[in-house]
Amino acid sequence: MEAVGIFVCLVLAIIALARSGRGGLEQRIRWHEQRLEELQAVLSRMGQALWRAEQEVAELRRRGIEGSTSTSTPTATPSATPTATPTATPTATPSAIPTSTPSPGWQPPPPMWQPPGPAPAWPPAPNLGPRAGMPPAGAAGVGAPQAAAPPPPAGPAFTVPAALLPPRGAEPPAAPPPRIEWERWIGVRGAAVLGGIALALAGLLFFKYSVEHGLISPPLRVILGTVVGLAALGGAELARRRDYTFVANAVSGAGVVVLYAAFWAARALYGLIGTELAFVLMALVTATCALQAVRHRSLVVALLGLIGGFATPILIHTGSDRPLGLFGYVLLLDTGFLLVAYYRRWAVLALLSLVGTALLQVAWIAGRMGPERLALGLGILGLFALVFAVAGTLASRRAPAGQPTALWVVAQAAGILLPFSFALVFAASTRYGRHLFPTGVLLVFLGAAAGWIAREQRRGWLATAAAAATVGTIFMWLVTQKLDPSRAWEGVTVGVLCALVYQFFVEWRPDDAAGDGPAPAGMVAAIGLMVAFILGSFGAPIAPWPWLTGWGVLAIVLVRQASFPRREVLHLAAALGPALGLAAGLLPRTWGEDRVLPIAPALYLALLVGAAVVLQLVAVVRRAPARRRFAEHGAALAAVILALALAASPVTPACGPL
């Protein structure tokens, strides 16, 4: 049955490729016929324009003749002396010459001979420029040699009529939307694709059949597979020279699949070559696909090379853990296909490269990485995020008006945001360690990359999403870890550093409060981390100094942002955050089991009063009316919250009255 399947696949491949070849010839014939029809239409329009121009010339000549004859006077002047002209100055008195008015539209033929006697003085012709076809005002006298006939009047320059020209200032017509040519896909491209698939299946079934029945020795199987793959690539080049593009792409794809299968079998099934050699051979196949895709502008070949390239580590996997070699190969693969996507504007390659990279990262991190390799894993995530961020930036600069396609935007944004999901897992699980500093380095790096992209490409939503992901990661670490003073300081330090990164881009463009700028990300980071520190302090019966430091720094950041245009309302957040945090410190006294404050009551009371005074001083130093009003409202609300917290706190023996 398998032999029958191989035979059927080969027959279907031959039929499909032959059908696609005939379809390609028919397609070229139809294309030339369409071009011929277009040229005939252009010639027809040009002929109509020429006919209109000839009509205009004839009309202008008729009007010139009518104007010249209507101004002539048919009277005899037996003794009048004609007016001197530059060409002739007659002095003899002409005899009476009878004149008659020509009929309208009549044009006298050029004279064949000059009658004796002085020529009459023609009346002055109207000034019609180069279109005037009248003779000069004076002619030669009696006995003078016959003057040469005047040159024919210069006709008007041919111009396209205004009816055929677009109006000035009009935009060129927009290109029609791409139309899906189902006939070509089903009749030509579809046949080529099916032929390539059938040819690839025939090669794979041949390997399977030869392995199961032992018809051919393993070395000969690999050699035959390599020869078939190379022959397919060579045949594809010959087909391209005869303009069988679809057939060539399908055959190239089939040859690539057969080569991948041959090299995989040589390593994984038969052990004929080592892992390093198999790795190099498959990398060469991938590079060949990329070069052919660029040279022949074939997206099909590029996709096959990309899929085969990411399948290579899986196909030749031996169970050994070599992350540097694995992700070094993936880095080269991504770099190559991102360059192909950049030069050919195939954004789908960038997106698929990101998907393949993310799958390999998930497989290695979930199956191999431990706490001792956390730094290596974070470095890998940051490196690939940088690669896709740079690729998206270059594509944006090359795109018309700086607006790349949606797939490029998705690939760039996903390359920045996907590492946050890994950081969230690292923060929520103790399997990868109990410290936040390593993950915090990745958060700072990703925040800087997102802020830079938001500044350069006006994608503030990306920086805002990165800020929200940063807040979520730090909050997850605070609520899942058993905090002591050192870990509390660690969480607050990482959070403050992340907030300062987003604040740096806000300071870079302080007047930019638009939604696509850095301002929303700075607000989300400062306010979100303030809330995270307040919630994190609930389950940590430790001294409040880490939390007070975090609240104070974030309050300063919010006050600074409130000093910029259209952000005065942030004075309320800057005042309410520390007030709610200090009030939350009374909750262990009021509802806790031990009902004891973590610090001395007098010191805590001093902190409450000092916070209220500082907030009021901020309101006093504000000069702008709107900012001062919001600062005063924030100081008043903070004082009310602190007073209510003190009033709700009962008197206990351990703490004494406040």
Would you mind describing this structure in some detail?
This protein has 658 residues and is mainly α. Helices cover 68% and strands 0% of the residues. The protein has helices spanning 2-70, 182-213, 218-241, 245-269, 275-296, 299-315, 323-344, 347-367, 374-398, 406-428, 437-457, 460-480, 485-508, 519-536, 545-562, 570-584, 587-591, 601-621, 625-648. Helix 6 (299-315) runs parallel beside helix 8. The radius of gyration is 44 Å and the shape is flat. The termini are far apart.
How would you summarize what this structure contains?
With 658 residues, the chain is an all-alpha fold. It is 68% helix and 0% strand. It has 19 helices and no strands.
Blueprint of the fold:
Elements: H1 2-70, H2 182-213, H3 218-241, H4 245-269, H5 275-296, H6 299-315, H7 323-344, H8 347-367, H9 374-398, H10 406-428, H11 437-457, H12 460-480, H13 485-508, H14 519-536, H15 545-562, H16 570-584, H17 587-591, H18 601-621, H19 625-648
Structural class, by secondary structure, is mainly alpha
In terms of quaternary structure, the protein is single chain
Let me know the largest β-sheet: none
- How does the overall form come out from the CA principal axes? flat
Strands, total number: 0
Helix percent reads 55-70%
Roughly what fraction of the amino acids lie in strands? under 5%
Kindly report how far apart the N and C termini lie.
92 Å
Element order: H for helix, E for strand? HHHHHHHHHHHHHHHHHHH
Number of helices: 19
Q: Ranges with pLDDT <50 over ≥5 residues?
A: 75-100, 111-117, 128-135, 137-148, 169-180, 589-596, 651-658
* CA-based gyration radius: 44 Å
Give average pLDDT, whole number: 74
